[in-house]
Amino acid sequence: MSTPQVLFAYFAVAMTILSLLVVTRRNPVHSVLWMLVLFIHIAALYLFLNAEFIAAIQIIIYAGAILVLFLFVIMLLNLRKEETEKRFQKQWLYSIAISVLFVFFLVLIVGNITVIPPPGPYTADVIKSEGHIMTVGKVLYSEFLLPFEIASLILLVAIIGAVVLAKKRIE
Amino acid sequence: MLKYILIPLLPLLSFIINILFGRNFIKDKAHWIAVPAVAGSFILAVSAFMDVQAGNVINVNIYNWIVSGNFNVTIGFLIDQLTAIMLIVVTSISTLIFIYSIGYMHGDGGYYRFFSYLSLFVFSMLMLVMANNFLLLYFGWEAVGLCSYFLIGFWFHKKSAADAGKKAFIVNRFGDFGFGLGVILVYLTFGSLDYLKIFSNTGIVLGQTINIFGNDIDLITLICLMLFCGAIGKSAQIPLHVWLPDAMEGPTPVSALIHAATMVTAGVFMVARCNPLFSLSHTAMNTVAVVGGVTAIFAATIALVQNDIKRVIAYSTVSQLGYMFLALGVGAYSAGIFHLYTHAYFKALLFLGSGSVIHALHNEQNMQNMGGLKKYMPITYGVFILATLSITGIPPFAGFFSKDEILWRAYSGGELGKFLWLLATVAALLTAFYSWRLIFLTFHGRFRGTHEQEHHLHESPRVITVPLMLLAIGAVAAGWVGIPPLLMEHGDKIGEFLAPVLGHPHGEGSHAEEMMVMGMSILVAAAGWFIAYQMYVKKTDLPMKVGAMFQPLYKLLYNKYYVDELYSRIFVQPVLKLSDKVILGFFDAKIIEGVVNGVPNLIGAFSNKFRKIQTGLLSNYGLVMAIGALAIIGYIIFMR
Amino acid sequence: MNTANYLVDITMIMPELTLICVALILLLLDLVVKNKEVLAAVGIAGTLVALYGTYKLFVFHAPQSVFADMFVLDGYSNFFKLIFYLNIILTILISLKYMTIEKASFGEYYSLLIFATTGMMIMASAADLIVLYLGLELMALSTYILAGLMRKQLRSNEAALKYFFLGAFSSAILLYGISMTYGLTGTTNLREIAAALQTLNIMESPAVFLGLIFLIVAFGFKVALAPFHMWAPDVYEGAPTSITAFMSVGPKAAGFAVMGRVLFEAFGGMQMQWNSILIPLAVITMAVGSIIALAQTNIKRMLAYSSIAHAGYMLLGIIAGTPEGLASTANYLMIYMFMNIGAFAIVIMLRREGFQGENLDDYMGLAKSHPLASALMLIFMFSLTGIPPTAGFIGKFYVFMEVIRSGYTYLAIIAVIFSVISAFFYLRVVMYMYMKDPKEDVTLTTSSTLSIALAITAIMVLILGIFPSFLLNLVRSSIPG
Which of the 8 DSSP states describes residue C352? Predict the structure, then answer.
């Protein structure tokens, strides 16, 4: 195994374990902290793909902004009761069985993929010569302008929803 | 053109006006709209009949319903000889029943509703017989079923009536389902739903087979059997006969309408209409004949011991319908339609007559509590006698000619025919017996009801007796259009009239044999009268003794062979259980919840906290989704 | 890609832009206008303007795709957009009075309805999996919020939460499917996917199939195919009734729109494969919907299961695998919109202060006290059953004929069996109304807008049943062979 492969294997396995830790912790603060570690691992995975910009964004936005928000919310709520209650309503046995079976199927199917799709226009060399931010920016504001704008609408709706559901006064 | 459209349109208008304005404006004047409407239909039907008789068969497309690309359905009317006769039967009987209802339903809270449903019923039946394609036929078919559901359950506060309505509806769904499939098969096979296109093109199905679960089945046989399924349901043949006797829970005019003119005759009409298809399949024809013959005798035996006056007549309808199918099955389509036509008159008369009796006795239906009514109700008694003479087949009453025609066609129809003839003759004996038993129990002897009832005994008002007398004319004379050639040269006018549509029946037999069949039929009719007379007039203690002697048999017949109980045990209860417990529970997450929560800790008690939304069924739902997705993946991995 | 091009492109999304503007204006108006009816009127007016825009685009422009082939305008998308427009207009009409009774008459309500509709329209026009996903999220997020609008009612909260979590689950599955497809073909554009499948010769690859399965599962969730239907009964029951009406048509139509487009355009060559999944799904869906509906006593729940069963019938058109089949599904959706919203409008009429009016028992003897409302309900129930001459019959007939034409006769037979079964629970409502004595007096909540909605739906159900050719020609010309 070459060094990148070893590193990739480490990150893949670590991410799986970290995800499990996130969902199994009883204390939500612990969950969030494990998630922080998970996000850093994900960012590392982006580096493998020569996407340094996305890796940086991953750390800044997710680890920096969103997680802090999570922590705020958790601190504001009183979650004592949830901490003492049982989780997963005893269907974990089924869930595990299904997950295992699913992985088995995936290995069966994806394991013998032989096709290599044609590379897109933004190869590592192109990005290197143009610069990351420039490439992303160009693509985002030309080719992917429409999806970009729709995404902004989704965020707007999310804000409206939060206001309606949480703030609106009803008699 | 307009004339023909008006035939069904008038009852429809009557329905619309009554249902819209009946409640607030028309109220107890509903008959002022309904009766003229249906009488108008009758007059137009007579005129249409004359047109057909003059040789004008009408086949018009009125409206292109769906026209789009390769997908065309046109709607139109076909008025040929068969339709013309059906039109006369339906409209004439309906008119009389409508008039009768004025008196019978007088003062009922839902008077306007009754007349509007009744009008809709007639409209549906007219659409059914006038259609020139299977789609419109199907529409009429379903509409008739729906109206019958409303009318049988008209007195819905009476539980038995509501149940009977439901039963009629559900039992008919079984038949209709087959019928619907039959229509789809017809469309697939012929690429059209138009009668004439299909019937002129029957050649293409010969030899075609369809593979069902590995067995090759003759296509045309399958089509015919599917269509016949519908007829079994609508015309109450074994094994779907159970709804018809219960249908008499509806108001008596409705029973008369269902039993005589509309609804039950639809099945007979449909098979006769599709005779070019049925004639192609021996298997289907034999099925029709055997189902008819067996039903004829089966229902007649049940009628022997029933005590409810309407129930006896109801079973006699099932039995007589069996005769009609027997005739259709041996290829004597015109004989079947002939019997339908005469039967309509005497059966309507019997029902309306029994209605008159029930009316006089304030809703007493048990014949054991009647008796001696002939001196109180002479007109009713008189018409009853005429109807009974007709149904038992005494010449020269209507029933004799049509029944004799069927018996003779069966006899001359080969090996199977002889067997069917035997069945039919025995059934005729039974018919004579129970019909006279009804007369003797109701009208002869001493009155066995309460004093109060006796005090109020009276003949019904004229609005009831006049329709009875008019129907009696039909019950006597309707058969004179079909006198066998043996007795009168060119006597079989109706057979010749129908021949262009229904063809001539084949069969062989000498004059002597024909005389023998005729003689037998008269003989059994007389024998039936004699036995009934002996048992119910001369030696009135005899029925008890006979009943006691054959106790198990008597019980079997009295309980109608326990068919209802059987169905309840086999179909109704399991289905209810299934949908109630298993399926609902399973898919509505109750069982999933149970399994999921129960299995990991087998004995663990269920706790209320699962009801909370955060930890409730939500993850179970997700689990089901995941299992579903996984099942699909597994399916494509292992099944392909 | 130059800027001048985008000006042209923007005209092509004018209707969507109009709707977004209207939604934003409504949010602002809500602050100054106290009368919510004004907001509703503005919403309807804005929708009509957008409808006009779509009509203009339809008349003046040949089918084309804009925004780097991510957004297409063709007859197919236009027909579905027509469904969405009518859906939102009818929903606004039936919700005015109702939301006041439920004490949830917010300005945001109309705004969110419009956002959801915009999402559906983007889905119908999406020619790229990314746009498709974003449109779907826009629609879904808005409907989650709408479902939970009655904040004081536990079951509304429950509905919103369940819908949200399961919807997120299905979105994850959708994204997984998209990423698998992207990984194998190197593109998210539907047409390029089809081309890549050809050139790389990977149609038989199980991995491609796996991606396809994930897509179907996610779409199946949106249109409520069994076994991905579990959310539907709870959410339909818990959500405000007007939203239930909206949800039972809009997301379903949008789901079928994208399902049809993705399957036909991107995976057109794999019809055998996707049919091997869709056929069992359709059968299970029809069975689950029709059989479980038999046991329901709550009419909203019953209509939820009925909606599941109808999804099964609609799926048959896609299974047929021909443009005609697709047209039959679109046609069915249009008809379903009228009859279903009509039925829900009657359900809404029974709701009044302090009375839910959702039990079947509440319909007992309705014909006695309210003959007109019962007659309308009868029409809708007949139509849902598929009894001629109502529109529902045309919808079913067309779909069945198409599926038969494609050689799946047995599916049509199964579908007929289940529609016979479904007659029991639809006609049970009729039976309750006409053949039972009322238990208690039911007063109907009426309003002029509700009456308009009822009139439109009932008349359309009858007209499309008696003169179906217009709609059939429209859908056929929209989705040419």
Answer: B
- Residues in C touching B142 (Cβ below 8 Å): 387-388
Contact across the interface for B139 and C230, Cβ inside 8 Å: no
Kindly list the residues from chain A whose CB atom is less than 8 angstroms away from the CB atom of residue B603. none
Q: Which two tokens stand for residue C198?
A: 């050809």
Cis omega (within 30 of 0) on the bond before B395? no
Look-up: residue for tokens 């149940």? B163
For chain C, what are the domain ranges?
275-481
Strands B209-212, B71-79: parallel, antiparallel or unpaired by DSSP?
Answer: unpaired
H-helix or E-strand spanning residue C234 = helix C231-238
Distance (Å, rounded) from C-alpha B334 to C-alpha B321?
14
Per CB-CB distance under 8 Å, the chain A contacts of B627 are 98
pLDDT in tens, C152-197: 888 888 888 889 999 999 999 999 999 999 988 888 999 999 999 8
- Mark yes or no for CB contact C184/A147 under 8 Å: no
Tell whether the torsion through CA atoms of B497, B498, B503 and B505 is positive or negative: negative
What pLDDT is recorded for position B474? Answer: 81
Best A94, A99, A101, A107 member to test B by mutation, with max B CBs in 10 Å, is A94
- Please name the amino acid found at residue C409: T
What's the rounded Cα separation, in Å, for the pair B71 and B355? 49
* Residue in the structure block whose two tokens are 């024809």: B285
Q: Would you state the pLDDT for residue B601?
A: 36
Q: How many CB pairs under 8 A join B and C?
A: 138
Looking at this protein, which amino acid is placed at residue A166? A
- For chain C, first and last CA: distance in Å? 32
Tell me the pLDDT tens digit for each residue of B146-195.
Answer: 888 888 877 777 777 777 777 777 778 778 888 888 887 888 778 778 88
A93 touches chain B (CB under 8 A): yes
Chain A residues with CB inside 8 Å of C151's CB? 165, 168, 170
Residues of chain B that touch chain A, judged by Cβ-Cβ distance less than 8 Å: 596-597, 599-601, 604, 609-610, 615, 619-620, 623, 626-627, 630, 633-634, 637
Q: Which two tokens stand for residue B269?
A: 């009409």
Whether residue B213 contacts residue B222, with contact meaning beta carbons closer than 8 Å, is answered with no
Question: Could you tell me the two tokens for B210?
Answer: 């369809």
Distance from CA of A111 to the nearest CA of B (A): 13
pTM of structure: 0.82
ipTM above 0.85, yes or no: yes
Which residues of B fall within a CB distance of 8 Å from C217?
Answer: 625, 628-629, 632
Question: Residue B262 has which token pair?
Answer: 């509309």
From residue B240, how far is each of B137, B234, B272, B564, C478 by CA, in Å?
21, 8, 20, 10, 47
Nearest to B317 by CA among B271, B269, B265, B267: B265
Residue B498 has which token pair?
């129908």
Q: Hey, are the CB atoms on A89 and B596 less than 8 Å from each other? A: yes
Alpha carbons within 13 angstroms on the beta-carbon side of residue B256 total: 31
Chain A partners within 8 Å of B620 (Cβ) = 89, 91
Q: Which two tokens stand for residue C35?
A: 């009368």
CB C358 within 8 A of CB C299: yes
How long, in residues, is chain A? 171
Where is pLDDT greater, at B24 or B576? B24
Dihedral (CA of B53, B54, B57, B61) sign = negative
User: What is the pLDDT averaged over residues C67-93?
Assistant: 93
How far is B254 from B571, CA to CA, in rounded Å?
28
